């Protein structure tokens, strides 16, 4: 099958878009992801410590969507990093990991 060359694109053509979009202030303003975690993931990717390209792609797409529609939420209060929501079964699930709570890691 054909795989999308995300690593190459993120290191070349899409690098400016990636770093201009996933800035700490930009991510914090939208409030959909923890900016500290996003910065760590981007740094780890840049330092070749993280190879999970779909995670970077999904964070980039989510932030671009938030920027386009001027989204500003308060899912991540500064004192805590968790997200609670009701799932279809009407039970509440609390996640401590941004990657899991946003569905990036399955």
In short:
The protein is mostly helical and 106 residues long. The protein has helices at 6-11, 15-21, 24-30, 35-46, 53-68, 98-101, and strands spanning 83-86, 92-95. The protein is 49% helix and 8% strand.
The multimeric state of the shown protein is single chain
- Could you give the order of strands across the largest sheet? 1-2
Structural class by helix and strand composition: mainly alpha
Q: What sequence of helices (H) and strands (E) makes up the elements?
A: HHHHHEEH
Rg over alpha carbons? 14 Å
**How would you sum up the major sheet?**
2 strands, antiparallel
How confident is the prediction overall: mean pLDDT? 74
Low-pLDDT parts are 78-106
Note the overall shape: globular
So how many helices?
Answer: 6
Fraction in helix:
40-55%
Q: Strand fraction band?
A: 5-15%
Walk me through this protein's architecture.
With 106 residues, this protein is mainly alpha-helical. Helix content is 49%, strand content 8%. The chain has helices at 6-11, 15-21, 24-30, 35-46, 53-68, 98-101; strands at residues 83-86, 92-95. It has a two-stranded antiparallel ribbon with strand order 1-2. Helix 3 (24-30) runs antiparallel to helix 4. The relative contact order is 0.15.
């Amino acid at each position: 099958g054909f795989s999308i060359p995300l690593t190459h694109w993120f290191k070349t053509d899409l690098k400016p878009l990636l770093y201009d979009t996933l800035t700490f202030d930009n991510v914090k303003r939208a409030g959909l992801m923890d900016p500290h975690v996003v910065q760590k993931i981007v740094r780890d990717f840049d330092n070749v410590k993280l190879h999970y390209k779909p995670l970077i792609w999904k964070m980039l797409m989510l932030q671009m969507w938030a920027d386009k529609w001027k989204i500003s939420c308060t899912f991540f209060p500064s004192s805590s990093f968790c997200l609670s929501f009701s799932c279809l079964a009407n039970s509440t699930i609390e996640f401590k990991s941004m990657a899991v709570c946003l569905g990036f890691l399955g």
